[in-house]
Amino acid sequence: MAASRIRVLPTAVAEAIAAGEVIERPASAVKELVENALDAGARRVSVEIEGGGIGLIRVVDDGAGMSSEELSLAFRRYATSKLVEIADLARISTFGFRGEALASIAAVAQVTAISRLPATTAASKIEVVDREPGPASPVGAGPGTSIEVRTLFYNTPARRAFLRSPRAEAAACLRVISEAVLGSPEVAFEARVDGRRVLAASGRGGLIEAARSVLGRDLGGGLLAVDRSADRITIVGVLGPPQSARPNRNSIVLMVNGRRVHQRALVAAVEGAYRGLLPVGRYPVAVLDVRCDAAEVDVNVHPTKREVRFQDESRFFEAVQRACWEVIKGAAPTRLVLAQETVPGTQPTDQQWLPAGSNVWRPGLVEAGLLGDQLPGSDAPNLLADADQWRFLGQGHNRYLVVQTRSGIALLDQHAAHEKVLYARVLSSLVDDRAEVLQPAQGLLDPILVEVGSEAVLALDGEELLLRRAGFDLAAFGETTLRCSAVPLGTRLSELRELLLEVLEPGDDGSAESDRRRHRIAASVACHSAVRFGDPMSAEEVALLLRDLSRTSGGITCPHGRPAVLTLSEGQLLAAFGRR
Length: 580
Ligand code: ADP
Ligand code: MG
Fold this sequence. Notes:
With 580 residues, the protein is α+β, with helices and mostly antiparallel strands. The protein folds into three domains: 11-204, Heat Shock Protein 90 (2-Layer Sandwich), CATH 3.30.565.10; 217-328, Ribosomal Protein S5, domain 2, CATH 3.30.230.10; 352-580, Ribosomal Protein S8, Chain: A, domain 1. The chain is 33% helix and 22% strand. It has 19 helices and 23 strands. Strands 1, 2, 3, 4, 5, 6, 7, 8 and 9 form a nine-stranded mixed sheet that branches. A five-stranded mixed sheet has the order 10-11-14-12-13. It has a four-stranded antiparallel sheet with strand order 17-18-19-23. A hairpin with a 6-residue loop joins strand 3 (110-116) and strand 4 (123-129). Helix 1 (11-22) packs across helix 4 (101-107) and helix 6 (166-183) packs antiparallel against helix 7 (206-215). The longest helix is centred in the C-terminal third of the chain and has 19 residues, at 511-529. The radius of gyration is 28 Å and the shape is elongated. The N and C termini lie far apart (88 Å). Mean pLDDT is 81; it is low at 332-380. Bound molecules: adenosine-5'-diphosphate and magnesium ion.
């Protein structure tokens, strides 16, 4: 007799699978627990993360608490105090409403919960072991709730296998907490990762203060406040000035009635407001809460509640774009437009930190002698192998180098060409950690403190050696600040903060990712230390650049894929002038 192949899953398996849809990674558990605390009216929430959230997640709040009966019920699926009838779905104002989160967490972890109603004197405690809530027992504790989650995904190895490194998971948890801070600026938050305090928000001072604690104080000072109401939509929050733009969209945090959403249309509205003010591939810093009548949005669209449906999305798009644009427009855009580029003749003086009397500061040019004849780690043929034979004819507009090649003329984008050389050098310094460090560092007599925000400070952990090979000497200095004692030679200090944010951008892990990461670090360092489009160059500097190019393998493009060199062969010139 053939065995039936269809079987009803044992409850434990079914629940673990269902839980996996709600609790995908430690950050999802943190999100649910923090939202429960906020739903309970907490004024103070503290979160502890250990071992990337696999070891421990503890969320403690001073909210409404639960009685021992409620505590025992809370871990049952579809147990919720927030929804009674279908009609309630239309006007949900709490974060949770499905009554699934605690049950889902308890299905994939060992949980200890302690809670006390403020009016009572004793707290109760229950432990959920292997999905079975134990009896409630009295304990001493302050008013509010503490939920402790240990050994997350102990029974779902597949889920566990998909997790990234503890550092990356902790960073994702921190991102969730940061968003809660921004969504509830009136609540005090504290977050610790492996015992170290990484975030503290006072709960006083509204969204600007909250954004400051999340984004770092430096940027906090430059944040532009937004508070506009029109057409029954209020938009409150902060925008970063154009020069604080980031290399990705991670710093565009949008909320609808305090709930974080990932709404393409609204992100596009914010980006649209910055159109023309940011270089390609740069994204604004924006923390905005779009407030409207709860009946105008449907929050029950996506299971992880990341998207909402507006009754009329275009109205919201317009409101966001207009609010942003009016604020940015009022913030002296003329001063900001060219932040990425130097207008010829207006050299910023960001080199005063160099040793007195030093007039050579361009790494690729001065240090070319450090390079061997071929760089390691690349077998791409060098299309510019004879560049050291080229004759420099002149510089146009402080941007383009005109050179005579063996049989024609070439034009170089000086920044892109230099970037290509530096990129190859930094990359070769990073690829093989046994090889000699090729990227020279510039020590700073007075270390600089740079405000980068807690996410970047956290991301430094474990990366110090890699970054040292790129020329940085960095150490955490408090929760949101880095102490920088050396930078890659030639780095412009005015761009240091931006550079640090780029190289500390937390990414995924795994070998493919670490490869991408090295490329990204190399590209960032190259970009921020290469001679600028707009800087005058001496004949000696150009000669060194040409020599470096001849020793750098690869094609004619810079790390961003733009051409660095345009060549016109003798044949092309003759044809163009009608001589042939
Ligand atoms: P939901 O939030 O969707 O209602 P949860 O599983 O997250 O579902 O929580 C179940 C119930 O447990 C909540 O409705 C609430 O009554 C109670 N609860 C959970 N966390 C807390 C907390 N930190 N403080 C007070 N009550 C809580
Ligand atoms: Mg909940």
